[in-house]
Amino acid sequence: MKKSIPYGRQNITDEDIQAVNDVLRGDFLTQGPHILQFETEFAEYIGSKYAVAVANGTAALHLSIMALNIKEHDKVITTPITFAASANCVRYCGGDVVFADIDPETYLLDINSVRALLEKSPKGTYKGIIPVDFAGRGVDMEAFKALADEYNLWIIEDACHAPGGYVTDSKSKMQLCGNGNFAELAIFSFHPVKHIACGEGGMITTNDEALYKRLLMLRTHGITRDLSLFKNDINFAAGQSQAEGADFPGWYMEMQTLGYNYRLTDFQAALGNSQLSRAEDGLTKRREIAAIYNAAFVGKSFLKGQSGVIDGHAYHLYILEVDDRLGLYNYLKENRIYAQIHYIPCHLMPYYKQFGWKEGDMPAAENYYKHCISLPMYPTLTSDEQEYVISMINAFYNE
């Protein structure tokens, strides 16, 4: 097979292109009506009350941390098996990142590891937890919420890998990842390899109206045009000693806090809306691809771990743990299959090692990293391409 096969790929249709083209020919490239439309429809899809569109998933994390008032040396717990942004957002505000190990069966943040950290310190030592729906598998947010309440902590659910994914709660009710029922805030990414692609882009979901309003302000320089929030009086706003009318003038706005320009554009939002309209089709295809991989690799001697079919998994990634991971990676690359590794443990990145983290601190995460490899997983992956991937892996291991 001459065509290269990446681990992930966007799916852009003629309808997507038309949606973006319509905006480019319209009146608003940014701060227009498509933003609110995307936010409204995404919140409905996820099952949250509110959604705030932002420039990317990292911006979503940063604004979430800001909205929760993290300050210098506040401690926040997260997983080492994630993209660095899940931890970096805490550092942006001067907070301290504390890693807890993963569950080797699920690859998710281990609640027992988190509890052990909390029990070692007086209550109030930690401010919050950032669990990650890694690879598309949903975290048991109900259990984390119970633990967080016990220690008066907030939760940000990093659901970048799992739009449309779900877990079943203790009452046998389906809980969509990022719906806000067990977390103050949740965040999503619209990077090209994600389920919904905007080029770049992100979303924050919440059921808390006060946090929603604060996020809207932080997203746009800390500026508000909401007259109910204005702190200066009408006379000042009008620029004269005595205002002629009873209302604030139409031009008036106030910067009330230090925010950022983390806005999404209208043409990105239009692309997001178009992609969202077929999100369930993409999920279905991802799960079909996962089922084929599961059937192909069950019982293989070279596997170190294989989780099989998982209800509610959104399958952003399909991960194997294998012997001779480096050899397999290079062999696949030689055959134009570009697998990927997700992730190098954050605590062993040079930046975080300066804070004292070292090899041996997170044994489950470190062992996982030695064996993990992400196979091609995206809705436009063809049956022939997938069979080629499977055949090349079997050929490498002579099985």
Structure description:
With 399 residues, the chain is α/β, with parallel strands linked by helices. The protein folds into three domains: 5-222 and 258-276, Type I PLP-dependent aspartate aminotransferase-like (Major domain) (Aspartate Aminotransferase, domain 2), CATH 3.40.640.10; 223-255, no CATH class; 279-396, Aspartate Aminotransferase, domain 1. Helices cover 37% and strands 15% of the residues. The protein is built from 14 helices and 16 strands. It has helices spanning 14-24, 33-46, 57-67, 85-92, 111-119, 141-150, 209-219, 234-238, 266-276, 279-297, 325-334, 350-353, 363-371, 383-396; strands spanning 5-6, 50-54, 75-78, 96-99, 126-130, 154-158, 166-168, 174-176, 185-189, 202-206, 223-224, 254-255, 303-305, 318-322, 337-338, 372-375. The strands form five sheets. The protein has a seven-stranded mixed β-sheet, sandwiched between helices. A three-stranded antiparallel β-sheet has the order 13-14-16. Strands 1-15 form a two-stranded parallel sheet. Strand 3, helix 4 and strand 4 (96-99) form a beta-alpha-beta unit. Helix 1 runs antiparallel to helix 9 (266-276) and helix 2 packs parallel to helix 9. The longest helix has 19 residues, at 279-297. It is globular.
Write the layout of secondary structure elements.
Blueprint: E1 5-6, H1 14-24, H2 33-46, E2 50-54, H3 57-67, E3 75-78, H4 85-92, E4 96-99, H5 111-119, E5 126-130, H6 141-150, E6 154-158, E7 166-168, E8 174-176, E9 185-189, E10 202-206, H7 209-219, E11 223-224, H8 234-238, E12 254-255, H9 266-276, H10 279-297, E13 303-305, E14 318-322, H11 325-334, E15 337-338, H12 350-353, H13 363-371, E16 372-375, H14 383-396
Parallel strand pairs: 1-15, 3-4, 3-5, 5-6, 6-9
Antiparallel strand pairs: 2-10, 7-8, 9-10, 11-12, 13-14, 14-16
